[in-house]
Amino acid sequence: MNKICVPTFLSAILLVSISGFTIDNQADDLERSMERGNELYIAHCITCHMHDGKGIPNVFPPLAASDYMMEDLDRSIKQIIYGASGEMEVNGVVYNGVMSGFDLSDQEIADILNYIRNSWGNKGEIVTAQRVVEVR
């Protein structure tokens, strides 16, 4: 290798190593967040949305494989903070109910959403406390 290629080659190896490290850290962060989110889900959400996230047909909408949950992250953040009421269509079914908001920290909201958005057939990007702050 000539002198110009060696630094470029070493830089490329470093970049790939750092990128892999970042992806691994994000996976670890998501896993830990989901563990916390599972506990919060049990404490705050399971009564209406059930242990399997399927809700109660025609009463409480499903979170499992939910088009509504996955299509608008900002809306989901706001609904946990402020609650929701009125009609909403989830997976082709119209629900008309009330969900009260929750007094949770930004990290707790991120954790619940990471759990819901990555369970029961859902696959979402990691939600951070900073994202919740920006939406709040």
Automatic annotation (TrEMBL):
Signal sequence residues: 1-27
Sorted UniProt keywords: Heme, Iron, Metal-binding, Signal
PROSITE patterns (alphabetical): CYTC (PS51007)
InterPro entries per the UniProt record, alphabetical: Cyt_c-like_dom, Cyt_c-like_dom_sf, Cytochrome_c-type_DH
Residue ranges annotated for the Cytochrome c domain, each copy included: 32-120
Statement: the UniProt record of this protein carries the keyword Transcription: no
Pfam family, one: Cytochrom_C
Superkingdom, taxonomy of origin: Bacteria
A GO MF term: electron transfer activity
Zinc-finger in keyword set: no
PANTHER family, per database record: ALCOHOL DEHYDROGENASE CYTOCHROME C SUBUNIT, BLL4482 PROTEIN-RELATED
Protein name, entry field: Putative nitrite reductase
